[in-house]
Amino acid sequence: MQRFGSVIGVEPNKIEDYKRLHSAVWPEVLAKISECNIQNYSIFLREPENLLFSYFEYHGMDFAADMAKMAADPKTQEWWKVCGPCQIPFTTRAKGEWWAGMTEVFHAP
To answer: Which residue of the set 22, 35, 72, 82 is catalytic?
Structure first.
């Protein structure tokens, strides 16, 4: 199992929209997340800085293949188009990232 953390900004005027969307995530999107071996997926909001922090655990064998499968899913693509305008990606994120990946520096077993 691998743990992943990432961060992105959120448009201040879109925070309520983002909360509303995530209070009722589309069932097809949730199913694809599970199918792609992601568990314990959480998103946290930090105000007033307007930052979103995401955490999930990957339980599969081929992360790149599972992420490609998720990215190819039409319903997931539709979800991203709805959520994308709410988000402000970091200018310092790595090439190919939307959410900026983070390095784990501590984990208490």
So the answer is: 22
Residue type, 5: G
List the structure tokens of 72.
Answer: 């190819």
pLDDT per residue as tens, the chain (109 positions): 999 999 999 999 999 999 999 999 999 999 999 999 999 999 999 999 999 999 999 999 999 999 999 999 999 999 999 999 999 999 999 999 999 999 999 999 8
Q: 82: closest CA among 6, 24, 31, 42?
A: 24
Full-model pTM: 0.91
22 is catalytic: yes
100 contacts 87 by C-beta, under 8 angstroms:
no
Kindly state the DSSP code that residue 108 receives in the 8-state scheme.
-
